[in-house]
Structures are given as structure tokens and as C-alpha cells.
């Protein structure tokens, strides 16, 4: 299959709308990451998404809408708290898990009786939904297991030959996927943290829970609230290790670790804050943004992980951010990229002091 990458204009939006109506796939920008869209009501179309990504069939997709009236048929009921949150945060990077309506294909929801829905703020998505009239299912546009793409070129690298059209709408602003919140029963629960933070949700709803598996691997026998949490995710090809501790210790430990790995013949590098680029200039530093700006780190994270693959880095050491606000979304992704492999800077530096 020939994959076209087109700039966004009236004609390319019309082409995208036509392809969606015909049950074909279209990759397109959203404010979070790039997605692969297919008509959420059309099971045959949605199956093509799973094939293009190599995604396990039991991992449900998010349905994208552009107005509250589109919820009709997609969900069977809009819980009161969902209405409040929609008024506060839609359009935007918030997905709400609600009781599934009769029109959503089983394939979209992987057979669950709930459905995740979001109203994106990106003008290109809104234009495509309006032009097609199609509420579309759309996962991130990466091959399953790879970091999500935040621009058209990275989408092309993964999807070339797998779908007919990629709309190039520039870089995604947020850089990590939407917050997934279950509002079906009990206390609302964050299944996946994102750009809409716990504090923001609590300012509208009062207390909100966070699923335990957000910052750790699923335990043996533990049920995945969000099926996506079960899978290896966001991983570059190299082995990522997170380095924790006091700022100066972390910088010294990362320098030591990267130099040691280099000497052993590895292609080693560090992911560090802008403030530490100079101190780590001999360690192939990749700037993940300012230590004081978790949103900037979120924006750069997947892009950085993808560059590491292009450079064939096989040993990677990364700084961490506090798991608060948008930092919770960063650490959820970074933890999985590292398969939760973490070391303490002080332990690395101990031998020297001895
Ligand atoms: O920002 C985003 O959400 C992007 C853009 C393209 O909109 N989409 C995205 O989709 O990240 P995906 O498929 O990569 O991730 C969807 C996540 C998965 O972890 C999945 O398990 C969870 O949402 N999810 C979807 N429907 C669910 C449901 N009914 N119950 C629980 N979790 C659900
Ligand atoms: Mg994904």
C-alpha cells in the first residue's frame, strides 16, 4: 500500500473524511500524540487498526467526538460527573470511560461493556470529524510497544505501507497521551495519567483515585483496570535505567555510569535536564527539558525516546521528575520505558567514597 503524507488543507481533510466513511484508516495529529483513526461503528474498519499497529485485540480503543450530541449511541448513559468534567475539560486531553452504547463496535471496545471517549481540541481532528460525521476510534499511531509519535515523520516511519493517508499537522503540543479516567462506578479513578492532572480533576469532582499500576508493574494476578497497562510500552530498543537521588549526586552518577558503559563498548547516552546539559556534555546528553517544567519534559519525552532508537543507543540513563501534576504522566511513561529499572545515585557513587 502506498502511504501519502499530505499537509492539512481543505482537500486533504475531504480526502481523510472520504477514507473514513469508506472504512479505511487515516493517521492524523491530535493535541496529545498522532493517532490512527477508523470509524468506531465499523468493526471491519477498526480491525485494520489492530493489524496496522500489531496491537493485541484485547486492548480497547478510545472513541473521538467533536460535540456532546455525538455521545448519543456511543455511550448508554452520561454520568453526572462526566457532564461536569466535560464542561470543564472538553475539548482537551481527557478520556472518560463510560457505559458503552449500542452503536460502538465490539472490536473498538475489545468486548468490554464500557467505552473510553474523548473530545480532542486539535483543529485538524475536529475538522475531520465534522467533515466525515464519523466518531472515530483512534489509538496512538505507533507500532505496538514503541513510543507514541508526536509528528508526521515519526508516524510515517512506523506506518509506511500500512495505511493510505497521514495528515501532517506539525508537532503535537502535549506530547503524552490523554488522561484516562474511569467514571463508571465508585470513586473516579485515573487509569492513565496525562495532561489533565489529578489536581485539575479534583478541583471539579473532589477526591479522585489513581490506579496502583500507574507507577509500578502489574503484580502477578492483579487485574488490569486499563488493559493497555498490561503490555510492554513506550520502549526504545536500548535498556533505559532511571537514576534517582539528590540533584548533584544524580549528575555525578549518570556521568560515571555512561562513561563506564562507553568504555565497555556500549553506545551509551544520558537523558538529562537542560540545566545539566553542560555538566554531562561528554555523555551524549539528550535534553528532556527544564527540571522546573514537567510539561516541557512531557512534550519532549517520546520524541527523545525515538531519537535514541535512530542513534542505535543501547544503554541509556535518565533523570526523573517528581510524580506530581504532569510529572505523574511523565513518570508513568518513563517507568514503563525503563521496565521500572531504577538505581540510586548514592549507591553508584559509594565505591568512590570508600
Ligand atoms: O491521547 C490519546 O488518548 C491518544 C490520541 C490518539 O487520542 N490515544 C491513545 O489511545 O493513547 P491508545 O489506544 O494508545 O490508548 C488507550 C488507552 C489504553 O491504555 C486502553 O487500555 C485504555 O485507554 N482504554 C480504552 N478504553 C478503555 C475502557 N473501556 N476501559 C479501560 N481502559 C480503556
Ligand atoms: Mg498507545
Residues in helices, as a percent range: 25-40%
Shape: globular
Overall pLDDT score: 95
Order of helices and strands: EHEEHEHEEHEHEEEHEEHEEHEHEH
Strand portion = 15-25%
Strand segment tally: 16
Termini, distance in Å?
61 Å
Structure commentary:
This protein is α/β, with parallel strands linked by helices and 354 residues long. It is 32% helix and 18% strand. The chain has helices at 10-21, 43-53, 80-89, 123-132, 152-159, 198-205, 247-263, 294-310, 326-337, 345-353, and strands at residues 4-7, 26-28, 35-39, 62-64, 94-99, 114-118, 136-137, 165-168, 179-182, 189-192, 209-210, 239-244, 268-272, 285-287, 315-318, 342-344. It has an eleven-stranded mixed β-sheet with strand order 1-8-2-3-7-4-6-5-9-10-11, with helices on both faces. The protein has a five-stranded parallel β-sheet with strand order 14-13-15-12-16, with helices on both faces. A hairpin with a 6-residue loop joins strand 2 and strand 3 (35-39). Helix 1 (10-21) crosses helix 4, helix 7 (247-263) packs across helix 10 (345-353) and helix 8 packs parallel to helix 9. It is globular. The model has no long low-confidence stretch (mean pLDDT 95).
